[in-house]
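Hi X.,

You mentioned you wanted examples for the new student's onboarding notes, showing what a folding record looks like when two proteins sit in one file. Here is a clean example. The first protein comes first, with its sequence line followed by its structure tokens.
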Amino acid sequence: MHVRIFLISLGLALLAAPLSAQLGLPQVELPQTGTVLDPVTGSVLDPVLDVSEDVTRKAARLADLRERRLDRLVRRNRDIVELDAAGAPARKGTLLLIDASAQDIATAQSLGFEANGIERIDGLELVVTRLALPEGLTLAGAQRKLQEVLPQAEISADNLHFRSGPAAALPLMAQPVARSIATPVGIIDGAPGDGIAVQAVRGFADGAPYPSNHGSAVTSLLRYAGVRTIRVADVYGTDKAGGNALAIARALGWLVESGSKVINISLVGPQNALLQRAVASAQAKGVVVVAAVGNDGPASPPSYPASYSKVLAVTAVDRHDRALIEAGRALHLDYAAPGADIFARNAKGGRMKLRGTSFATPLVAARLAATLDHGGGWRQRLDAEARDLGKKGPDGVYGRGLLCGACRPSR
């Protein structure tokens, strides 16, 4: 007998549906976000697939949808978005030099690059120089040219990062399971709605802070799981190129300075030199970053920031504790948590039914924060709490086991 499941498809949503339909909310008026990110982060449930279908074919299909989605993103937003030298979408016309010397900047200027600003990212001890490209050069071409002339310099495109999970509206929401986690947690996402209590919200994009369904869901899941002190950095706002690496780095710096000990990033993007340095700097200050592996399937490229060293990479399971078929991958995998048939608040305060690795991530972040309430040794405590799934011991599907299975927000 064939068991049928719903497969989340970001790509098919792009081809036929407006944002409200993509989010599964055709009758609910929602706050809007930047027009570049809307078609990328909104999703619908794809036509059902037979679970007996060959796994390789499913993975290939998800990979193809990802490529179509990114291609459509660039073609429809040529004034804002361009592919970098690695073929990943980034803010058009901008390169970033990290901790560049005066000589490096002078060399770039001699090649026709214009220094549009030099800033120190508070909390991370990073200095970033924004360069405008010489006329006539593509982003990829300019990046290759500058790297050839400055082989030792850290040069980065301002890559875009995307939220990793859709939601559909329902009335009400379950009550929190606990109110006892004292360790402060930061979130890098969109802003939560006014009805979700947090200690602080700060914007790092045009129009930010601006309420978003995704940010509201992630924030309310942390609150539901018992975290008392939450700060949210909105890296999207209404910015057409929101979720870029520079915005995320700035957000990390603010959250570190504000005292967050755990930082939840339910976003995915390509490897990026600036963001890698920013994450490492936060970790050096004792902060633990928890990130989603994304929803582009097991054949997708490794997702970042989940793949950066020592970041807790999180995947998701359904209500039967089966790995989500659309779960992406990282260079390592730490834990799984519920990521389907769970509920949280949207930007209007209503309840949403959720699916995606985005929503498993705050549940893991909450359990991590709870272990930090008791001092060091958090890895041992989490491992002791995690329930082994799949092959015995750590594996590439469920990581080191399932966390927060008992705190699944349900009806």
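Then the second protein repeats the pattern, sequence line and then tokens:
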Amino acid sequence: MVETVLVGDIGGTNVRFAVARQGFAGHPVISDVSVMPGDDFADFDDALIAYCESLGDKKPTRALIALAGPVSDGHVKLTNRDWVVDAKRLEANCGLETVRLVNDYAAMARSIPELPDSHFKLLHDGEQEAGGRQPILVSGPGTGLGMATLLPVGQSGWRVVTGEGGHAAFAPATPREWALYEALKDKHGYVSSELVLSGSGLNEVHKALCRIDGVAWQEIPPAEMLKRAREGDQICNDICEIRARGTLYALGDAALMNGTKGGVVITGGVAERLADWLEAPAALERFFQRGPMSAYMKPITIRLLLAGEAALVGAAALYFDEVSLQ
């Protein structure tokens, strides 16, 4: 019988589940995908119980769940949702033999070698050595700003190193960005890249720019903000430009510090919606401009991930990596 595993990708907005098995050449194949708003559930246990019940007799006995928060001894406090998840409690509540919890960006990063080229949009075609295996940076703005580095192991294996790079300090580079930084600093004290670049900080950035310009703030849904930006609304366009340029600036720093010559993959729903701004020359220059090290940056390929189910694939890959070592 083919072994299956229940996998999950739990972010600040949605909970995603699937059943995974190993397919051709060991690549994970997922099925029974379910996407549900996190707001529909009081806690994560209820969400996983609902999915397990929907599977009936197809429910696997083991699970690997990727969550948006640091993992410590089988516990996770989600960064952008008031949920505390405990692996042992899930095993008891859901009738599972084992539940392993990992950071969501560990799963996101591990998915990258498993996905076809059609799942990516090329933003910058670097000069990566043919057949070479170099570290890859995986990061980008969604509800938060996750970050991980994918390290090659041997001829075909991979190891993921996660961190909380999204909470590093935001680096303003223009007078408009400095004004935004000062406005946010007055209110929050510390201005992280996640605050400026991710979905969770959108209203705070919008409010700050409105205060700077002397304009009354009114909440605008993200889709409407993009529409207005394309129609020439100054504040909305500034928000899109600041977020796109700031993302590439932050990822350029991380790529330089981690030596990710294997490329940079930008992920997250916010990044997908900002694709037009991310590929603008002025935004890409933020990635390349590193003084005497600018030549080091140019050969690094930059891609935008377009696959919403990538972290489910990555969670499955992490599980089967462990199985192969047993």
